[in-house]
Amino acid sequence: MGDTRLPERPLISATGLAADLAAREEAGNPVRVCVIGAGEMGTDLVTAIRQMPGLDIAAIVDRSLTKAKPAMEIAGYDDDMGVVCETASAITKKYEQGHIPIVQDAHEALSHDLVDVVIDATGVPEAGAELGMASLEAGKHLVMMNVEADVTIGAMMQDVAAKKGLVYTVGAGDEPSSVMEMYDWVTALGYPIVAAGKGKNNAFKVDAVPDDYREEAERRNMNPRMLVEFVDGSKTMVEMTCIANATGLMPDIPGMHGPDCGPDELHKVLCPKEDGGILASRGCVDFSVGKGVAPGVFIVAEMRHHRIRERMNDLHLGPGPYYTFFRPYHLTSLEVPLSAARAVLYGTSDMKPLPRPVAEVCALAKKDLKAGDTLDFIGETSYRSWAMRADEARAQGALPVGLLDKGTVVNDIPKGSLITRHDVAVRTDTPLYKLRLQQDAWLGLEATA
Questions:
Q1: How far is residue 394 from each of residues 209, 357, 375, 421, 447, measured CA to CA in Å?
Q2: What's the domain count of the chain?
Q3: Cys-Cys link to 149, which of 16, 100, 129, 280 (CB 3.0-4.6 A)?
Q4: What are phi and psi of 408, to 5 degrees?
Q5: Whole-model pTM above 0.90?
Q6: Which residue, 55, 72, 144, 117, is CA-closest to 351?
Q7: Judgement on whether residues 140 and 74 belong to the same structural domain of the protein
């Protein structure tokens, strides 16, 4: 194992959030975090939080009780630091003794008085929705890393949080919130957004299945299903829909364009057709498969004023009127604790859904599906995610991808076809389905499924 020692604190003055967290550390009153999930993302969180003054882990939820201790070992904690706790009183006792409670029952941990903020790192829409809503009902701020849950019922979770005086936020560091950071900056300057998006991280193979990527996944210490979710474009569709529903930007066409263009070409391609680009409208979410864009994020903005364009040209950013603002990286799980800190200290969200979704993540069949087939999960063999405008998705009867797991095919669906409620019966006994029904009713819409 590599060096797990904590870095020495530099002899410099902290400012802003760093100073406020340092003050909490000095006062012995850290922001106390409940981490739900101890897989790849949860391990990153445990490690990242250990580096940060002013934050502390009040509990790690590990349903199998097999992952939390390895995560803590990677983070550099002593072997006896993590202690399994079965009751609220045990959580309190062990935490006060300087241990990190490991809890199998998520509800026992997320509702505990010690906890200020919950971070969902399950990666499963069903779990994220159920436990996220339970966290809000328990009066805890919620940081959502589970973007699949956000695009399914995020609008309602944000509404519940606001009514309770809580913060609901998509976690900092991943592409959606990294785009949002740039979006806030560009729009504050008054420049209209033409397109916003990311570079796709992996080769784009729409019919990818886990068996084809098992060896690569093991080499990269990833779950094969999760790797395929990136390869087949599902994750990109989810992330762009998350951005759409937080900004009002929409897919220009179903599935978006995904052009093959590099950072220097984005503003020439992702601009209106009348100016030589591919967009039918301004204000879109999209992605690029071009070399040099991933793992970055971008905003294409329009600047028409002659003085602004003159200055931009002086700064070697070109003649305009379209300009690309590009950040060549995102830090995924490593920035997420910042969202937890800002939620507790400032009551602010890094990224939250608009009151009404403008886009939906639906699905296309990856193979010919036959009546009687049982659908599997995102990133497996049955389907891949597909981003659409919400009104178009509803008009075509498209099902939200988050509801498809273990659904039953009732009519044959050809490969590449949109999966609709006319052809699939989804499970109606799940918390996610019930919450989605509540969101549809709350929005005054006919039930999605």
A1: 28, 12, 21, 10, 10
A2: 3
A3: 129
A4: -110, 130
A5: yes
A6: 144
A7: yes
